Each structure stands twice: as structure tokens, then as C-alpha cells.
Amino acid sequence: MKLTDQQKKEILEQQSQQNMTKRTVSVELEKILYEAISVLDHGFIRVVDYMGEDSSIVQAARVSYGKGTKKVSTDSGLIKYLMRHRHTTPFEMCEIKYHVKLPIFVARQWIRHRTANVNEYSARYSILDKEFYLPAKEHLAAQSKNNRQGRGNLINGKQADAILDMLKQDAERTYKNYEEMLNERFDGTTIDESKDGLARELARMNLTLNTYTQWYWKTDLLNLLNFLNLRTDNHAQYEIRTYADAMLKTVKKWVPIAYEAFVDYRVGGLELSSKSKLVIEKMIKGQACNFENSNLSKREWNELMESFGFTEKII
Amino acid sequence: MKLTDQQKKEILEQQSQQNMTKRTVSVELEKILYEAISVLDHGFIRVVDYMGEDSSIVQAARVSYGKGTKKVSTDSGLIKYLMRHRHTTPFEMCEIKYHVKLPIFVARQWIRHRTANVNEYSARYSILDKEFYLPAKEHLAAQSKNNRQGRGNLINGKQADAILDMLKQDAERTYKNYEEMLNERFDGTTIDESKDGLARELARMNLTLNTYTQWYWKTDLLNLLNFLNLRTDNHAQYEIRTYADAMLKTVKKWVPIAYEAFVDYRVGGLELSSKSKLVIEKMIKGQACNFENSNLSKREWNELMESFGFTEKII
Amino acid sequence: MKLTDQQKKEILEQQSQQNMTKRTVSVELEKILYEAISVLDHGFIRVVDYMGEDSSIVQAARVSYGKGTKKVSTDSGLIKYLMRHRHTTPFEMCEIKYHVKLPIFVARQWIRHRTANVNEYSARYSILDKEFYLPAKEHLAAQSKNNRQGRGNLINGKQADAILDMLKQDAERTYKNYEEMLNERFDGTTIDESKDGLARELARMNLTLNTYTQWYWKTDLLNLLNFLNLRTDNHAQYEIRTYADAMLKTVKKWVPIAYEAFVDYRVGGLELSSKSKLVIEKMIKGQACNFENSNLSKREWNELMESFGFTEKII
Amino acid sequence: MKLTDQQKKEILEQQSQQNMTKRTVSVELEKILYEAISVLDHGFIRVVDYMGEDSSIVQAARVSYGKGTKKVSTDSGLIKYLMRHRHTTPFEMCEIKYHVKLPIFVARQWIRHRTANVNEYSARYSILDKEFYLPAKEHLAAQSKNNRQGRGNLINGKQADAILDMLKQDAERTYKNYEEMLNERFDGTTIDESKDGLARELARMNLTLNTYTQWYWKTDLLNLLNFLNLRTDNHAQYEIRTYADAMLKTVKKWVPIAYEAFVDYRVGGLELSSKSKLVIEKMIKGQACNFENSNLSKREWNELMESFGFTEKII
After folding, report:
1. How many domains does chain A have?
2. Residue C68 at interface with chain D, using a CB cutoff of 8 Å
3. Which residues pair with A20 in a beta bridge?
4. How confident is the model at residue C68 (pLDDT cuts 50, 70, 90)?
5. Does C314 fall in a domain?
6. Same domain for D73 and D115?
7. Nearest by CB to B51, which of A25, A68, A95?
8. Domain-terminating residue out of C193, C208, C223
9. Mutating which of B143, B183, B184, B214 best tests the C interface, going by the most C Cβ atoms within 10 A?
10. Rounded to two decimals, what is the model's pTM?
């Protein structure tokens, strides 16, 4: 990630603010507020605003349950109870806003989470930066043989070089032609004073999907956790997962108690179907139990065995 | 509005906070943060948290439009432009949270605005306060003759007294029986130690719709303005309108520029249909124009004349 | 449930329609379309429209995955896969609309599910029916001692009679006074021709929360299943649960394959936290495992044991 | 638009269905159900399912207002009243589902409308079609000089040829390299049997933003009209506007009364700010009125004059 001097200056100005407020404050999050955290080759995330912290969750729950919550003595106990029993509304009382720089193909996955507010840099108004994502060699994987949406073995040697070369050259050539059509370079200088440039809203269509864009993305804690649960999962594409991983660390600073409950009950948790539950019951009781008498499909059986780290996989 | 000593103490504690933050701050809103603003006879609203202010709208817009916004030199000019052209997403970047005490029938109208986060006091867990709304005499209106959902003439004298008496006695009696069924009084004392009380989730059904409830209600600025536009309108029921009016004043303190644009373009504005626009065009050109050649229905014609304060009403 | 003659006539007219369509059809659901299914003492649900069925889920998934879905040979296999892995968007492609008659306190719980479209009978415009919910004796339970939101032992004998009497008399008296204030009876007749009635939007506040209202409620299959998962749960209040149970039966007729997957993976399923998963792993391996070395709270331990039907409860 | 034989066959099969239903039917919409309506060079829209029609809006409104709607005698009168007064919820009772083929840069604008259900063809699972949008010559416009997001004069002659050439060659080259990386051609044939192909989720990043994608897009009538109001506007980018225009024609077939009200009150309507309203009032009264005494900004004055077709523009 290379920040421009202008960006560095803006970040320093934002960080130098010292305002008084009667609002609650997340001390640990304040320490990294506005800081650009590097993701992929040119991307970043920055927390640029927030509202509430762990105590806001507790406060909302106590308003809801009234005297009914008095028995749960600690904030931590209450937040865990809420997370465990999916009492979700108190988690909506915290809000956070990120500034994110990300490749367009990642933005396309991300935007499918509809319960957020977004302001994206508009390529109808302005020229996109001359930056595109090129995977590191250790992420150049072949299509998985047995998982339609996953990655398989690494691609090495000449084939890897050739792929990276194609990605780089195609991105550079399409960007150069984008400038050519606009009759304007990425730095705002005009190419040929005697000509008009093509409308930006049209020229942008020549860019490749690994071109970087940026946006402000704002959501409440509940929807953020839903997003992170899906996108930190190892079925998520590596590129969006690195963003989710970086964001999860900011959640740990922001709402440490909710974070801990989330990791215990969601990230590290497991959902059993009613049939799988019967299998587990038999296993605990030491009863004979195998794929044949499990009522599960092969796929379900394998997923269940893997989730417990058992080796009895059916092929 | 009577606050309990406990509530007064909590408010003072909240107001006495002096935290340092790098976030932007709305200086005027900070001055009334947590303060209970009286609405109706026992209700209130309180701003209990917020995120962003006018500059956050500007910042989001500038991220979107990039260099494209440089020509609009002032924040005020930009915010007005966004409001006028319904570029709505930058207004979503501000968030506010209210604590509201309100009669249940008002809560039922309010909750129809779905784009908000809500934590309501739960009558499954806890006993509702012994407080119910009784209209002031000057709001006791008859059903309107020509408007199916409005109020007509005032009701006076003995009929008014009789109505207020019924409302008061019915609310008191149903609340007393609520306590009886619960076998517990509003202050938590048990009525008859030898008996079990009815489950709270059942007993509450005996309460009348003017009983007060309370909630935390959190929304972004865009959806708040949509809510206020509908609920400060003179077609809105008086009781919810008083809440909207009180909230509108807090918006003025929070985001004064957005407030001004909202009042100019929305609250005081007017929507013309394509047919009404033709009528207005004729009028401006001094062409003969009346109901008969207007292509409007009687109702449309009357609404149009009224909106401009003209007297040519068709009955 | 007593339907008026007018309602019966309308239902018969709706059911007698025989239209040709190129849309997909759910044969089993068509058989009960428009039929009023009785719930509680005066309530009902009716399916009044729908769009799509099991094949619509499959079709949407195949558009998404393209050739990638060819390997999953059966519709049933694909729907189960989607449900298991929370690939939720294909389930949003089916839509259903219910007409529901329900007590106001149930409506207040229901409306908290925000992702639905609602048109409720308006008590600002019209007079509410003279119908209120009175629990059957076998549902008159005491407040639970150990669960803040639940029901405990049944209430019997004189206390039960007294409670039902209060509920009945209070509902009748407040309704009678509602008519009095309106100067109009439930059947539309005027009480005193010489007087104006109080505005409906005001008079309604005198009604108790067990008064029946009605609405059209429309949602997609995904959000319906989320609603049913929460509201058929035994932690849900009995009164809303009976509505959810009745609706679940209509889902079985509408989308039988999705229904089966839902029951297996959601209703009968179990979520394990990461700590609970470690306990289960130990148990399967026959390792010593008890509350003390489980890292779980008492409450978590008890919930885990109960979910598997084991008796080692800690008090 | 060229449909494959497989697509043509599917459409014919869908159209040949003749099912009986008790649901309401939109006779005109049924006639074009499933039909692919050509948009841009390779795109299309198809209505693939729907629920409800004009009478469903009326029915929902009558449930809401009860006897209160009896005075509005016709369905048409009622629907116009609802549209005029922004009583929006009855319009949510109709639902429609489109199958759309569209360039990725159009999809990126479209998806910003969050209140819809979407299933998009996944380039993680499957190979995208070898089809990309190339503008017709009459749409090759220069960047507007006075509107940051608009198009200005046409670009002609050699410059136009050069631009189209760049767009075509870049799209073809990046697609060819996409196949190369995948080691698989668009038709599914393998290029080099001795090699693994790059994972699809990675290779796709090499494609340009004018590559076509496709999705199922489902929404209710209210949100569809909001979408169409914004996207049929002449400020919308031409490419998405052509989709909106084609969809608007399907709305006319589906719900002709709501369509007519929409065109009168929204599409052809005008919003006046409170300051603009004062200007119009003066004009009607024949009072002296010009930019200087209008209290409007230059931009507002010009927009107001233009909206009425007056020529007194301030530069």
C-alpha cells in the first residue's frame, strides 16, 4: 500500500483531533482511528467513525428487559447470553464506518451484503486510480477438482509467471487505453489539447475487474458480525477474506467482550442438523455408528467427520 | 413528565462524562445530549448517542465524486445540491440514537418505519410503568366529516368531561387488574404471598393502548428525515407529530446545514403532478384556466389551489 | 373463529377462480388458497397469494452457479445443499402473502420482523371488530420462577376463574366505552344522533391489547423461515407460536422440499459453541468430561446436556 | 441479442405452460411472460414470474382503511389517491421477477438499489460468456463540460473509430487471456490437457467491465417504481436507462392503472422547494419576479426555469 502525500496529510490531521464528548468511547479503537491498515497489494481498511461500544449493547438489553436483567450480574455474562440465544437487537445499537480501498471484483462480492450504507468513488465523475491487484505467487492456485468454487493446488514455475504477466500487461494496456479515450492521464493532465475526451461513464468500461476502487462502508455491529462470519470463513475467496480478517481485528479493539462471544459462539461454532445430532448422540453413548446407518448423505457424513477432526471419511 | 430519582441520577451521570475523542463532534448537540425533552403528558425523547455531523455528509460526497466535487466550493452548497437532487447516500453516513417514552398506540404507528434499530422495554420480562396518556382538553376532537383519517371540531363541555373520565377510569381499572393478575404491584411489591402471579406475557394483554412504553430507537439521518417528513406533516396524528416536532429540533442542533436544506426542499416543498404542472404553466402565462379545463379531479384541483393559498375551491 | 357471512362469501368467490397462467404453480398450496385456518379463539391465517415454489429455488441456484450445478443431479439434493451451507439468496426467490387476524399484543411481537410488507387494518379510518382474545384455561400459566420470560405452573381453580373474569369484563367495558366515545356501535349504527363522536384515532387508545386486528403480511421464503424458526421455538410466547405452527403447515404444502430441509437443518438442529464442541469431542472419545473441566458456565453446561437429553444437570 | 438454441428452447418450454390457478392474473403480462426483450447489443430483460396486479393494490388498501375506503368508488380513483399521497405500502403487495443480461458496469450501478433479491451468475463457479458491450456510434459522447456526470457532444470520425477499436480489441484480448489462464475455452473445451487451469475466482479479474453478466432480480412494485423513477430519468447513464425503459413497458402491461398514476405523479411531476414555490406564486399573481429577488441560487433558478420551459436562464 502506497499512500499519496495528500492522503498521509489527511490522516495525520484527522488523528490529531482532540475533541471533548459526552458520548461513550472505545479507548482501544480510538488508538487506531483513521489509521490505514494494509490489505493485499494496494488496498487498505480504515475505521473512520464509530458509535457505542460493549456498554451500549448492555444498556440496550437492560432497557429491553428492565428489571428482568438484574440477575445477570456482569456485562460479560449478559453479552454472552445475548449472543448465545441470538437476541440480536442489542448488537444493532453499535455502528461503525470504514474507508476501504479494494479491487472491483472484491467490491462486487462485498456489496451483496445489503444491510449497510455505502458511498463509492464514482467513475462517472472522476478518474480511477492507476492501481490494480496482482496476486502474490503463493496465492496463484488452480481450480479445485472437487469443490466448484474453491482453489486447489498451487500453480508454479513458468505457468505462474505467464499468468502474472498476462494480468499485469492486460491491466496496464487497458488502463493506458482508458487514459487515451479520456484524453486525460491519471494525474489529470490532458493528452491532446485539440480533442475532447470520451465521457468518463463510458471510458471506465475498458478497465479490468482487478482495478482498485474505494468506498465508505457503514454498518451496525450485528450486520458486521454476520458479514465477518461469512467472509472470514475458509470457503470465502482469499481476497475478500483478508479484508474480513483485518476488520475482525478492529472489532476486537472496539467491542472486546462481544468479540470474544462472537469467536466462541459463531466463528468456532458448529451447526448440527437433526440427523447429525442423532449420530453424535449414538457416538457419545458408544453405540455402533457408521455412514451406512447414519441416514446422512456421503457429503454430510464427510462434513460432520471433518468438523470433529475424525478420519472416517467416505469417498 | 415526571422522572424518577433513579432516572434523574442516571441522566446526570451520563451528562457529566468528559471523554476525549478523535471523532467529529456536533457541539450544539453535545449540549443537550441525554437530556429528557418532555412530550405529551408523560412521554419524552432523549438523544443518547450520535455519529457524524454535517461534515460527514460532505466527506462522503467528496469520496464519491472525487475531484468532481471540487467546483462546489462550500459545504453548504454541496449539502443543498445533494438534498435537491435526492443524492441520498451521503445522508446515510450520520447515525443517531434516541431514548423515547411513548404511548403504545403511538409506538404502533412509529414501528411501521422499518429502517431503524429498536430495543423496546419488554412486558414479557418486566412490569410496565403505571402511566397512560390522557389527551389535553384542547386535543379532544370529533371525527372529521370530510377526511376519513382526520380530526374535526373540538368536543367540549360535558361530553369532553365524560370522555376523559372514561379514558382515565378504564386505564386505571385495567392497570389495577393487571397488578391483580400479576399478584404484584407496579413498585415490585407482592400482593398476596400465598399465590403465584399470572405470567407477565399474558397479564399485559389487559392494558389499554394509551399505556406508556419506552424504547431505544436508532436510525441514520436519511431515514430519520423521511420519518420526520411524514410525521411532522399535518396529516399525521397529533400525538406522533409532537414527537416528530421535538426530534426535528434536535436535528437542527445536530446537522444545522442539512436541517436547513431539509426544511427548504422537503417540509416546505410541494410535489406537482404532470397535469398540475400544466395548470400552473397556464396560470403563469395568464391563460384562462379553471377546474373544467384542468384535467384534474375535484380533489386534485382543490389540493392544488390550497397548496398555493388560492381560494378557487370546488366543492 | 366465526367468519361473517360477507367474509365467507368473499372467500368462496376467491376460491372459485379458475385462471390460466404460464407461471409455475404449487398444486398442494392451491388447494388451500384463501382458506381461513383457525388460530386462537377468534384469529386466523389465510394464504392469499404466492409466487414460485421449490423449482424456483433450484432455478435461481442454477442461474447463479451455471454449469457448476450440473453435478448435483437432483432438485432435492441441491436444495438441501443450499440450506446446509446457508446459501440463502435462492430462497428469496419465492414470495407468499398471508391475511392474518391476530390480537394486538401478538401483532406487536410479529412486527419486529422488519423484512416484510404489511398492510394493517387502520383504526384511524375504521372501527375495530368487537373481538378480543381470552386464553383457554389450559394456557393460564404463572410466571416462571427460573426463566424471566417464560411460563411456569398452571393457574387453576378460583384464581383462574377470577383472571378470566377480569380479562373478559375489562375488554368488554373498554370496548363499550370505545363505542360510547365514538358515538357509534361496532355495527356502524349511531348511538346519539345529536352528538359528534370522538375521532377514531383517539378513541382507539381505550382498547386493551387483546383486541383483534388484522393485516396482509407478505414476505419471501428466506425471511419467512427465519420468522418461523424463531417463532415455532419453545421459547416463543405460546400465542404467537400457534400462528407460526399454522403457517409452517402451509409452507409444507407450498415448498415441500425446502420444508424438509428446513426441519432437518434448522428446527431440529443444534448450534454448538467452540467450547461445547470440545466437550462433545471428549465425550465421543470417552474421555473424562464434566462440568468442572468443561470451561462452560453452569447455564451453558445445562443447556448442552438438555439438548442431548442427558441428565447430568448442574443446579 | 443472440440467444443460444438452448435458451430458445427453454423459453419456448416455459411459455408453453398452461397451468390452472386461483391466484389473480395479469392477462397482458402473461402474453409476454418469459419473452427475451432485447436491450443494448447483447443484453435482455425477461419477466419470469410475478404476483398480484392492480386489484392487489386495491385489496390491500381496502383491508387497511376498512369501511373508510367505501367512498372512493373506483379502483382507479383509489390507486391514484394512494400514489398522490405517497401511501406506499399497498404497492408493496405486488412482486415481480426479472431475468436480466447486462454489462458488469451497469450491474454495479443497479445493485446499489438494496431492496431487491438477487441471484447473479457466479464467475467463481462458471465461465462467463464471451460477450461484451460495445456502444453504438451514436452513443459515443464526450465528457460534458458543465455537468460532471453527463455526456456532451458526440465524438465522430477517426476518434470514434479509434475508441471502438480499443474497446473491442481490449475486451477480446483480455477474454482470450482469461481462457488461457483457465486453460479452458468459453465453450468448455480444454486448451492444454497437460496443465491445470487457474481458479475461476482468480481468472475473472482479467475481464473488462463491459463483459456481460446475468441475474435474477426480484422486487416489489413500490421499489421497482422507485428504481424506474431514478433510472428512466435523463440524468441516469444511457446504458442503464435503456434497461429501465424496457422494464417500464412491462410495468404498463402488468399494472396499467398504477403505471398511469406513476407517470402522472412521478415521472412527469416536479418537486418545488419552498423558495421556488414562492417564485411561482409571484409569477401567477403577475408580480415582478426575477433571479435577483428570487432568493434562489443561479443553479436553482435555472433548473426552475428549465422545468417550466421558460427561457430566462441566468448564465
Report:
1. 2
2. yes
3. B20
4. low
5. no
6. yes
7. A95
8. C208
9. B143
10. 0.96
